[in-house]
Amino acid sequence: MSLAAASIWLVGWRAPAAQENLILCVSPGVIDGDTFRCDRSLKVRLWGIDAPERHAKGGPSATRALAELTRGQTLVCKRRGKSYDRIVAQCFVGNRDLAAELVRKGAAADAPRYSNGRYAR
Hints:
globular, seven-stranded mixed β-sheet, CATH 2.40.50.90, single chain
């Protein structure tokens, strides 16, 4: 199939419902230890964890940890809900769950109210 034909085919293609809940984010802009932007407009908060705010104690290191994990990467995120002006999503770089990596590094804590203890240490 030629590139032009593939482009036309993709434009007319509609993803199944399960795939509509996926977000592809290339080189996200990190806001703090558990929140980032995709394409300058869509704010995404990582599901199931809590990290300190950027200016709170531990915030700068949590923000750096998320930035290091995502710098130059493509994230695949599964929508889990919405909170204020943000999408809440479980996000992966390859097969690595970002929330699990942040908890493992000590940059965030499990939020069992939302995660049902998935990220408990």
